[in-house]
Every structure is written in C-alpha cells, then in structure tokens.
Structure prediction request, 381 residues.
Amino acid sequence: MKHPKYTTSDTGLDQSEYREIANPFCYRRFFRIPVCFLLPLFTYFMLLTSHAHATILTVKKDGTGNYTVIQQAYSASASGDTILVYPGTYFENLDLTYSLKDITIASLYLITPDISYIHNTIIDGNHTGSCISIRNTGNAKIIICGFTIQHGSGYGSDSKKGGGIYVFHANPEIHNSFVENNIADFGGGIYTRYSETFLSGCTIRYNRASGGGGGLLLSYDASIIFDPQIKCNLYLNYSPYGSDYSKTSYCPPQVIIFDTLTVINPDQHFIYSFDEYNYPVNDLTISIENAKIEPVDHDLYINPIYGNNENNGLTPQTALKTIAYAYHIIASDSLNPHSIYLSNGVYSPSTNGEIFPLNGRSYVSLIGENRDSTIFDADSM
Prediction:
C-alpha cells in the first residue's frame, strides 16, 4: 500500500487547512456574530470603539505606517490597543513580558478574511529565540491573530522551550495562525507553563523538539483550551516522545480537539501524557476528525542515499529516506510486529536529513544491513 503524498492546492493549503483557516474566526471570537455580514470599515469602527481610548497602530515594512517593527509598536501601545501588521517578513523575537495591558496583534486577516494575509505576514524568529514570548502578563487579554510563525529556536538560558511561542504565567489567545518549522528542546511549536492558552483555527506543523512535545508541550499547571467549533490542526511534528503533543501529569486532565492530526488513532509516539517518572498517564480525552497520513501495516525499507520519503517504503527499490519518517508511518502491535530495514550508509542530519533522537515504536525492530557500514551520526548535536 502506498501511503498518501502531502499534495497541496495552488494556494498552498490542503483540504483540512481550507476547512479551518478559511473560517474568519478572528472576527467571530471578537464579535460573536457571522463575519460575512461585517464590512471592513465597520470592523475598524468596532476596534476603535471597543475601548474608551483604544488606538489602532499600524506596522508596515515600507515605513508608511506608524512603525516598521512589531516590538516597537507593542512597546508604544496602551491597554486596549490593536496592532495591525501589514504583509511582510518580520525578523523578530517578539517579547510580550511583564505587562498587564490588553492587546491585539493581528495581520490584515483581522479585517479582511483573505488567507493570503496569513501566509504573507510572517514572524520569523531567525533561529535566535522564540518567535513570540508571552511571560508574566497576569490576566491581560493578549490576542495573536493571522500570522505565520516560523524559524524560532526557543526561550531560556539552559534548555530552549517554545520555538514558535513560549507562554509562562499568561493567558493568551492564538487565532488563525500557522506555527511551523520551529525547533526547541521542549515544545518545538508551543510551550506553555503555569498558563491557560486558547487556540482557535491554528495549524501547528513541521516543528521539532529534541526533548519532547514536537508540536505542543504542556508543563506544570498548564492548560490549552481548543476551540470546539473552529478546530485546530496538529500534524507531522517530531520529538523523541509525544511527537505532536506532550503533557506532564502536573497539568490537569485535558480535552484535545482537532480537525486533523498526523494519524487518526494516535499512540504515545504522537500524543503522550506522563508522570514525574515518565510513565504514561491516561488523562486525555481526544477527538480527531481527520488524519494526515494512513499508517502502513508492513515492513519498511530505508536507503539514506537513494531513498525518498515520498516512496511507499515497501521494497528496497522504493525505499524511504529517513528512519524518523518510517517510525512515523509504520503500524505495529503485539500481534503484528514489523521491522525497518536499513541499507548501508550514513544516517545523519547533514547527509540524509535524519532526525535524532529517534522516537522508537513498540513492536518495531530496527535492522541494519551491516554493523560496520550502517552508521548513525548525530553530527554536532
């Protein structure tokens, strides 16, 4: 059986993304009425009058707005203000810290529900820290809406946490955003601690963590509230445990609601709640409507030189390229164990894009062609 390729439409969105991201839920969250009946000018009016002294601050790369840097606009804002960010790539590590002011930071999608604004309004962490850090903001209402959040590397002097978004002692809302291609030690996409975070219509994908929680990690009295109507997507993230979602038992039981997850019936490889001794805890209620991939109930073959992760991996001639991806798609249990066969070669981040540490699966054997020629090399990791 050939597993499905991840095709996209001309707009760069797959069907699950169309279902969720096309809904103008930023409006809905603010106004609680159908957005299709709201005109942009009316939206501006509502933003201006929702707070006695609210101001709309504009951020434009070309210098024609109030600011060219989002951080500067935030520093100059007052409680109740809206920061409206025009399309462009903003190389920033946005720091929303030690402030009790209510603030909305949004792309033009907030006033015109055009999906292109999300893809073209980018907060890029430039691999120098979290893209957005929200810390010690108390009960302030902080809303982030309509961005692509990418290339973050996490907050912290010791271990790096929250590549895309780091949340600590805060209660933010994240709407209608893509959190993708971020890395960290913990919580590659989003890390949250002592906080309650609301997620609506977000897609969290292609993030990695070397410790745990490739997509999301909840630590110490943290909760994530998933919008049950405008659902999120969480898929194809990677870490040594809980590739998509990971939670410690110091957090309360969680209800997880997604439109699309990597697989329809996730095991601990994808979603993992654990106690202080790293034993699994059954305290998650999970609702998933769609899957990104269909698991392959078959032995798989890997070739680091000639393989391709778009192959089906069922024969040496149609081998996959990376072990990490094979672990993602293989299906096995005690009644149907399987093996992953590795061709000779070097498996490393620099040669075949291998991801370490590997997230092994129960009832899956990893078998090399030759002990001296099948080499794992973590490079400088």
